[in-house]
Design brief:
CATH class of the largest domain: Alpha Beta
CATH topology of the largest domain: BirA Bifunctional Protein, domain 2
Largest sheet: 5 strands, mixed, barrel
Strand order of the largest sheet: 9-10-13-11-12
Number of domains: 2
Distance between the termini: 17 Å
CATH architecture of the largest domain: 2-Layer Sandwich
Number of strands: 23
RNA sequence: CGGGGUGUGGUGUAACGGUAGCACGCAUGCUUUGGGUGCAUGUAGUCCGAGUUCGAAUCUCGGCACCCCGACCA
């Protein structure tokens, strides 16, 4: 894409009402727009990042047998009353509204009810199980207080998978399968080395749920981490009994702040029973599927990555989710420079390398370089009169390191080695 | 929801109760071309509503919005 046609702009200063680093950087770089407290719109660059995150999640969910669906955000009152989760006493973060035709509807804060109601219509035999439907969909939660920029919003995407198993044992196998896929996802996004499986409160159907907590100062959660074993305990269940149960020693634990990037739960048959989702087993008896649910928040991941991978000049995206693989920058309006850059631009595109070309003629060199650093695309190719005189261009990695002066004809393999 | 704070052009900021000013941006022209170039001209503002006052950005009350701490976060 040519930057001269990109409508979003960068700015020197962040709005005063944003204090979280992730939102400040993302707004300054033109990735997002704040609509309301805790509600952000995504502009071209930001949407590309979010889509990349979603795509990684999608690939890993598909790889373990997930089937992508898309459930409605608008939900009927009657369905949720069947599980006693419509009343504000039970679930206090509903966005509800009345229908002109009469009755009430709500914006889904989660989707256990609708997915179970749907599966009820499509599952009837043990032969139909197990199933792993999932979606990447907007969730709405009327939080009393939004904060931490993109990391705790009132409207946000969630990847939510639900598993339907024939037996508890089968459920546990699926649960482990999803757990492994989650680690792969966090690894691919670039936060794997600081993300830990964390034991948290599990609700009624299992002693624990599992959270995936990424160690970060900005985190809202406090966890107790055993780095050697690679597991942690959330402060909310941090008791001697729990430590004993998990075989952890208090002295070996480190108290750290962390961001919950994923959470997986065993649901038992709570929803399948309440909504009468059944299947006929091999022996002829009617049974309820054992369910699990598994969430990841793409918006929160984007905010977290922005927060973790940035410096005093701006964002530093991991290549797996960067809005573009390469930022091509013309450092002069001279015809020879622009023509060479145009050739490189087409060359990169024809090799399937996503490139943002700063072809602007009105911006100064300093402005272009400052913008490129703020936007944070991992690889910059700078084309200017000096290096062009030797038929070279400069490859600079945003995260730092020595610039390479590469002959124009050898740029493609040099870039491919980096992305 | 409890506590605290803040609302001034698009953005960041100044102004004792007395002419709303500065910087960035944007527009026009010139200038400059390897780290936000310089100059000139122009553009645009006191969150909303009451009240006090000769006079309100400034004081009072109400509303709305935003931020922070806490609580909450299947």
């Amino acid at each position: 894409m040519r930057q001269s046609s990109l409508f979003s702009t960068t700015r020197r200063e962040a709005p005063r009402d944003e204090t979280s680093r992730n939102a400040q950087l993302l707004i300054r770089a033109g990735f997002v727009h704040k609509e309301l407290a805790g509600v952000y719109s995504f502009l071209p660059l930001g949407w590309r990042v979010l889509r990349n995150i979603m795509q990684i999640i999608r690939e890993e969910m598909d790889a373990i047998g997930g089937q992508e669906v898309h459930l409605s955000a608008l939900q009927s009152r009657s369905l949720w009353e069947q599980t006693d989760r419509w009343s504000d006493e039970e679930v206090d973060i509903w966005f509800k509204t009345s229908l002109n035709a009469g009755g009430e509807a709500g914006l889904a804060p989660t989707h256990e009810e609708p997915i179970t109601a749907i599966m009820r219509e499509h599952i009837s035999s043990y032969r139909d199980l197990p199933q792993l439907p999932y979606q990447i969909q907007l969730k709405f939660r009327n939080e009393l207080r939004a904060r931490s920029g993109l990391m705790r919003g009132r409207e946000f995407y969630m990847k939510d998978m639900y598993t339907f198993a024939r037996t508890q044992q089968e459920h546990e196998e699926l649960y482990e399968r999803v757990k492994r896929a989650y680690f792969t996802i966090f690894q691919r996004i670039g936060i794997g080395d600081r993300t830990y499986l964390t034991f948290a409160s599990g609700g009624i159907f299992s002693q624990y749920s599992h959270e995936f907590q990424t160690v970060a100062e900005v985190g809202e959660d406090t966890i107790y981490l055993d780095r050697e074993k690679g597991i942690a305990v959330n402060k909310e269940v941090f008791t001697d009994a729990v430590l004993a149960d998990l075989g952890l020693e208090r002295e070996r634990l480190e108290e750290v702040r962390a961001v919950e990037v994923g959470n997986i739960f065993s649901l038992g048959t709570r929803f399948s029973e309440a909504l009468q989702c059944t299947f006929r087993d091999q022996d002829g008896t009617l049974k309820y599927p054992v369910m699990g649910c598994y969430g990841i928040g793409p918006n929160r991941l984007m905010g977290l990555v922005a927060e973790l991978f940035s410096d005093d000049r701006g964002l530093v995206w991991p290549s797996s989710i960067a809005p573009f693989a390469v930022h091509l920058i013309s450092l002069s309006t001279e015809a020879s420079v622009q023509e060479t850059a145009a050739t490189i631009y087409r060359d990169l595109q024809s090799h399937g390398i996503e490139v943002l070309w700063d072809d602007r003629t009105e911006a100064s060199v300093g402005e272009k370089l400052a913008d490129a650093d703020l936007i944070g695309i991992p690889v910059q190719i700078r084309v200017g009169p000096k290096s062009l005189a030797e038929r070279r261009a400069e490859i600079v990695q945003r995260k730092g390191g020595t610039p390479q002066y590469v002959p124009i004809g050898e740029l493609i393999p040099a870039v491919e080695a980096l992305v």
